[in-house]
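User: I'm new to structure prediction. If I give you an amino acid sequence, what do you actually give back? Let's try with this one:
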Amino acid sequence: MPVLGGIKAARHIRNIFTDLCAVDVSMKKPLLIASTADAKQYHDDELEAFDAYIQKPYMPDDLVGKIRELLARGAIEMPRSGLG
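Assistant: Good question. You get back a string of structure tokens that encode the predicted 3D arrangement of the chain. For your 84 residues, that looks like this:
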């Protein structure tokens, strides 16, 4: 990323979300999935900024599977409308 690395960006997004929730309790938690070739290069506390990670290279079905996994464990709520 040109300005922020992924970990710093994720932490920044989480902070903004926390502030927004204080104003609007209807806000939904953003889903953050890290995409990296080697997650072993990061410390656990760095990856905590994300809901999950997916190893590169990956196929679209892999990403869909990761999102379904997060939905199944209740990490995020499925929107009730706008899915077409």
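You can read the tokens as a compact description of the fold. Here is one thing that stands out. The chain has three helices and two strands.
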